[in-house]
Specification:
TIM Barrel, alpha/beta, eight-stranded parallel beta sheet, binds (4S)-2,6-dioxohexahydropyrimidine-4-carboxylic acid, seven-stranded mixed beta sheet, about 450 residues
Length: about 450
Amino acid sequence: MNPFDLVIKNGTCLTPWGRVRTDVAVRHGRIAGFHDGEARQVIDATGLMVLPGLIDPHVHLRDAGAGDASGATVESIPTGTKAAVLGGIACVFDMPNTSPAATDAATLATKRAYAGRNAWCDIGLYVGATKSNIATLGALEAEPGVCAIKVFAGSSTGDLLVEDDESLERVMRSGRRRIAYHSEDEYRLRERRKLFHQGQPYAKHAEWRDVECAFLGTRRLMALAMRTGRPAHILHVSTAEELAYLRDYREVATVEVLVNHLTQIAPDAYERLGAYAVMNPPIRDRRHWEAAWAAVADGTVDCIGSDHAPHSREAKARPWPDTAAGLTGVQTVVPVMLDHVNAGRLSLERLVDLMCAGPARVYGAVGKGRLAAGYDGDFTLVDMGAERTIEESAIVSPCGWTPFAGMRVKGWPVATVVRGNVVMRDGEVLGAPAGKVVPFT
Ligand code: DOR
């Protein structure tokens, strides 16, 4: 028998059947079994937790895959996936609001081919819904590498938007896989915009895009999802009201919460960070932060993402509301979440559920999400005792900033393995881009 490609020795593996002190062997990119053996490469994981490769199901890498990443000033597939593996992420799902937007088969094919050669981690691709591509969505969601259709039901960065019930229902009737939604009611957003003026404090963002914008958007989507029977994944749920409501729609709904909404609280975040707290849906007050943690605790939440949304410092510096909405996060989501684990807010097992099994289940990612024989040899090795400070100088996204700069955290990713390839070890990126486009059921 040929040697294994990789054996990870002496670590504590977070398996679906519990924490196990065991070695784990990889052959041909897949987990061969939980044992030692002759191997081309060995990692000594003494003192480390061996997690399934963590998945960030919500990133905006800004790269349509036309191959001109060298000119990318804020982010690209090569730089964003490098940030991912440095941060302990082994797989990302990339949003379609690029230029051009990923809304047709040709753009998807270009992006898929480019990502398959230039990504450092594995990657799934969202296909964006527009009012003019509705009839093609059923075919587009079946394209290789497509994790889901993404619908912006309220407008955010870019011009993707499907806001009216009739079009939303047509989207739901085109295709059958779970659809991911940005849920904010566009009509209420437009109405409320008139109540504010340029140059007001950045904290006004949460007043403009208020709780009812998000809650009304979600109520409308649930009514349509129930009528059509089409499964829905509500991205970045940010309000206590939606979290309480969505529990009653389990037959159609799954739920994502962001690391930002679990970590930053208004008004403090706006006072400390100004424009670097501005995102859609907004950072809200403590009541919603508490509800988000309660929903993590009681199982309402299926997935945690970063909503990594790079913008240039110039675009962020514009006065409110013209400032670019969106915060970077793919390189920091794991350290910040591990710090929450060490603070006792969730268990490491629940983190694995939210960042591995959850996204694999919600999107139907083949081979992802658990340490089990035959699954992909994806691992995130973490040192739960390491105390570090998140440094802005370590951010490799070309935009060069993080809203978590200066945060002291306990718990740090020390290695990232993608299908048996060790692509990050102790803060160094290793080898060549090994990422592949993920298959989905
Ligand atoms: O804050 C956000 N930024 N929310 C979104 O929905 C989009 C994202 C972006 O692409 O910048």
